[in-house]
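Notes from the pairing session

We agreed to fold both candidates in a single pass and log them together. This is the raw record for the first candidate, unedited. Please don't reformat it; downstream parsing expects exactly this layout.

Candidate A
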Amino acid sequence: MAARILHRLRHALAGEAGREEPAGGGEAEDCPESSELEDDTEGLSTRLSGTLSFTSHEDEEEEEEEGDGASEELEEPPQAPGAAAGTEDGEWVSAAERPGGSLLTRQLQELWRRSRGSLAPQRLLFEVTSASVVSERSSKYVLYTIYLIRSGQFDKAPATIARRYSDFEQLNRRLRCRFSCDMASVAFPRKRLRRNFTAETIAKRSRAFEQFLSHLHSIDEIRRSPEFLEFFFLPDLQAAQRLTCTGMYREALATWANAYRLQDRLGVCSSGRFLLTLAGLAVCHQELDQLSEAHGCCEQALQLLEAQGSHPLLGPFLQAHVHLAWKVGKDKRRSEARLQDLREAGLPLQQQPSLKECLIKEPLE
């Protein structure tokens, strides 16, 4: 009897040890998003030091299942060494270094350690918040709504875009023409001949587009390229310009404001497009009798133009600022002095277009 009990006890202990052996396998189950891509033919994803890399297997009909822990998606960059493990000396102890750690987890942690110094930290997150099927006269497509979110911050008014698959495909094609080497490691979900409107396909593509934009944003040259930047805010600028020209100022104001937030998130608040956005905001605020807000937009634009001796929008902004400052009771002497300098430099201010005329005439292509 004692021998039989001892035999059963040994078997029970051996079973518990076997269950505790794969320490890396349980982590992937905590993140249900990763399971969406297990059978995805679009590709696999791995986040290292806050940067998403996305590799596809376009030659295969079906994808191999993701390894334990390899597909885990994190919403924030990995914690600093010491914070994750809570050790007193600040040394990070991973699951692979504790008893029972699996070989795959140990390899991933070693790869992360080697890569964290060379990969750019994730400062901007791209999240597909909704996707809707749109039916038009002769076409049907899925429209994806994407939020641009600063990591670790809460946006009361988030910057949003709405794009369809063909928009992403055009961006991918343009970037591959210009940045063929950098784009070699960036995968893009290929077209499907069927089941394009199923919930499963839409969910997988939503995740793939998030990874696609995150990977592009992690590459310095692509992140600063006009092709990448204008994918986000140029459609809003074009729509806002049309609405302003037709006198729909309230609708235009909302679109100009979203274009402002997009450029702010992307870090291009000193470009010519941003100055045009401030001009649009100033015009719409003024037309809606929101004079203080219009005055503030002019002041922000003049601060950006401070170091520039000449700019097509400098005269119009100065004239608008003087007029609005007089309306709201603000100091306008500095702007008047700058206008006087322009007159002495020979600039015919009487022939300068107004901010509204600048908006109407500006080609946005």
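Candidate B (folded immediately after A)
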Amino acid sequence: MMSFGKIVVFLALVLVHLKHCAAFTSASLERTIYYRNTPPDPFGHYNFEFQTTNGITTRGAGNENGAVGVVQFVSLEGIPVTFSYVADANGYQPTGDQIPAIPLHVIRQLEYIRTHPPVDELRSRRW
């Protein structure tokens, strides 16, 4: 006779197996229809491009100083989404219509932090 713990472990393993099979099936349906990749040369320059049957397209290029690229796909709501990015010494900088703007109150908070001196935590906790 199986104990309750063994039954729970068995059911968990069955669920993991079913999820793995479902992921494998969905992954096999999303096939790449175009793929081009130029690996980095001795100077660090590279580029790539691919497209899948479900409408995902991406292109990118870069070198040791940074990268640029564009990503396109269709959202679950059927809306075409396109964003481009630059990644360099200033960090990752995506641009696109679907990327939300920084709220004004966050900009004000950051400006306040930038213009005011930091608080001495130990001194401020003394009564």
